[in-house]
Design brief:
With about 240 residues, the chain is an alpha/beta fold.
Length: about 240
């Protein structure tokens, strides 16, 4: 059962532990509910692009630099990069640890077909002064341990870059179940987009903008896990928590 605490929804917002988040995904993609990983990734990435675009206007923040990790969080970032490109943003992607899975190869091809440049880590870091906003999609809720190269260096650079950082679901490097921060919390994003439901570590998020994305949670999942979440307005793919 998800825990509850401060935040939106009258201070009764639900937070998922790492194991609960894994179970929710398993239920969503199980035979009873029938979602596929690519379907959830598409909806999650779209919601991230919409939330970023809602907060950071194209006129003032035209250039988006996206850092993608090797897992599903990175896949969300690749999807978000595509939608941001369609929204008229100047997008560059740093995706240093690629996978051979066909889903991810397809996401890369889709970006390449739009002319989105993929850059190496050194080039991405060197281009930070010219970007308007950074999308952090390196590590998600399955992350454990300490960041390894090249992502450790990226996180260190981003921590002092002075650019607004938008983290997808989990600020990269944070311990998912840890309510109190530690030395590992190098990354201090200005915006956090929680997916499905906020994770326990989101309790310590102190940035300006906290959004919920991933408009795909059916009533059955809400009831089974005791989720108290804000309602999405109208046709929006995201909703502000704080």
């Amino acid at each position: 059962m998800a825990s509850r605490g401060g935040g939106g929804v009258g201070g009764n917002l639900s937070y998922l532990s790492q194991q609960e988040a894994i179970r929710v995904d398993e239920e969503l993609m199980g035979p009873r509910l029938g979602f596929s990983v690519d379907q959830l990734m598409e909806l999650a990435g779209l919601s991230c692009a919409c939330a970023l675009a809602e907060v950071y206007d194209k006129a003032t923040h035209p250039a988006v630099l996206v850092f993608c990790g090797p897992g599903n969080n990175g896949g969300d970032g690749l999807v978000a990069a595509r939608h941001l490109t369609h929204f008229g943003r100047d997008v560059r992607v740093c995706y240093p640890k690629r996978t051979d899975r066909e889903l991810y190869k397809g996401l890369v091809k889709q970006l390449e077909s739009l002319g989105v440049p993929f850059v190496e880590v050194d080039e991405a870091i060197a281009s930070l002064p010219a970007c308007s906003v950074v999308l952090d999609a390196m590590f998600g809720f399955s992350f454990k341990g300490e960041p390894r190269p090249p992502f450790k260096a990226v996180i260190e650079e981003l921590s002092g870059c002075g650019k607004p950082i938008v983290s997808v679901d989990i600020p990269s490097g944070w311990h998912v179940d840890q309510e109190d921060g530690g030395a590992e919390d190098l990354l201090r994003p200005e915006m956090l987009i929680s997916l499905t439901a906020p994770k326990e570590c989101a309790r310590r998020f102190k940035g300006k903008h906290h959004f919920l994305g991933g408009r795909f949670v059916p009533p059955e999942i809400r009831e089974r896990f005791g989720l108290s979440l804000p309602e999405f307005p109208g046709t929006s793919q995201c909703v502000r928590i704080s």
